[in-house]
Amino acid sequence: MQEKDVLILAVESSCDETAAAVVKNGREVLSNVISSQIDLHTLYGGVVPELASRKHIEKINQVISQALSDASVTLDQITAVGVTYGPGLVGALLVGVAEAKAIAFARNLPLVGVHHIEGHICANFIEHKDLEPPFLCLVVSGGHTHLVMMKDYGEFEIIGRTRDDAAGEAFDKVARAIGLGYPGGPKIDRVAKEGDPHAIVFPQAHIEGSPYDFSFSGLKSAVLNYLNHAQMTGQEIKPADLAASFQNAVVEALVSRVMMAAKEYKVDRLVMAGGVASNSSLRENMRNACEERGYQMYCPSPALCTDNAAMIGAAAYYEYRKGVRAGWDLNAVPNLKLGER
Ligand code: KG4
Ligand code: ZN
Fold first, then answer.
1. pLDDT tens-place string over residues 37-53
2. What's the CA-to-centroid distance between 189 and ligand 1, angstroms?
3. Which of 91, 168, 258, 329 is a good FRET partner for 229, with 20 to 30 A between their CA atoms?
4. Contact by Cβ (8 Å): 200, 241
């Protein structure tokens, strides 16, 4: 370890993963520990906010100790503490924020508040050492669907967003309707491999005057209507075809807008981030579209697409380098906007 190395202890608890990591100089992950609550929330078919908070408080100390020991470092070697302070479930965020503040206060360490989506985007810096802004990024998670220009470290311009459901939310709701259960995205991804993506043609939403905005609630309703109609008329439902056709409609909506924006904004470096970026069909289609046009495509490996603390450590490092510091009054901001402090 060099003396000038910056070691960030990062904490993430915005939804249903309690996570901590130690990241060196923004790009090298020394440890990345995740305690998933999926089994707990599966019983209820989705994330139950109060249960998530309670589980975070139970696990957080254990997860942080593990992250430090996996990295073979002690708190004495940590340069700063980074923590997700929004957006997310308020009770869940508060656990991580309170914990990070307590550690920073006790050790007199700088505290850096991180935007969860900035974290998702920065996950790309971990595996793609040559990647630097500016680039165009498609952020697709359970709570967000944004098309973002990352102009510089910590500088973002949102050029498109969903008007209703996030892409991941649509995956989760459709999976529930087909009876695949929670979390829906990975299950649809798996089942769709056995189906025909052109078996059912679902409508594509286009928003007048906002070519880069998305809308997935109409698609979700179309799937539900298809299911109701098939049940009422006694038509056979093939879950694999339904999953593949729905997934194809989402992927087409995402890829077409990214390609349109890349042309308009004259960028040739395209980045994906967020849980849905681990979708195999989205990755394949985006890669093909990029290859056809000679664009470079970057995407984290699936484990770094979904929620983790290593990505928060990467984002915290670049904010730290810019001199961003949180005060002892740092609070959770459930609807924090990207680019705002
Ligand atoms: O980024 P993430 O872990 O948490 C949020 O910040 O929301 O994203 C979770 C979302 C869920 O909606 C999940 O169903 C979706 O990402 N997801 C997927 C896949 N893996 C996770 N969606 C489609 N295909 C996947 N393979
Ligand atoms: Zn996330």
1. 988 998 888 889 999 99
2. 11
3. 168
4. yes
> Angle at which helices 167-178 and 184-192 pack, to 10 degrees?
70
Is the pLDDT at 333 greater than 80? The verdict is yes
Q: Report how far residue 175's alpha carbon sits from residue 169's, in angstroms, rounded to the nearest whole number.
A: 10
Q: Which residues pair with 273 in a beta bridge?
A: 139
Q: Which atom of ligand 1 is nearest to the CA of 17?
A: 3
Contact at 8 Å (CB) between 114 and 96?
no
CA atoms of 202 and 249, how far apart (whole Å): 7
Per-residue pLDDT tens over the stretch 220-263:
999 999 999 999 999 999 999 999 999 999 999 999 999 999 99
Backbone angles phi and psi of 201, in degrees to 5: -95, 115
Read off the tokens for 207: 């928003």
Ligand 1 pocket, residue 119 CB under 6 Å:
no
Q: Which ligand is nearest to the CA of 119?
A: 2
Q: For residues 60 and 62, what is the distance between their CA atoms, to the nearest angstrom?
A: 5
Ligand 1 centre from 187 Cα, in Å? 10
pTM: 0.96
Which residue do the tokens 């997700």 mark? 84
pLDDT given for residue 157 in this prediction: 96
Q: What does R_g of the chain's alpha carbons equal in angstroms?
A: 20
Residue 79, judged by CB atoms within 10 A of its CB (0-12, 13-18, 19+), counts as middle
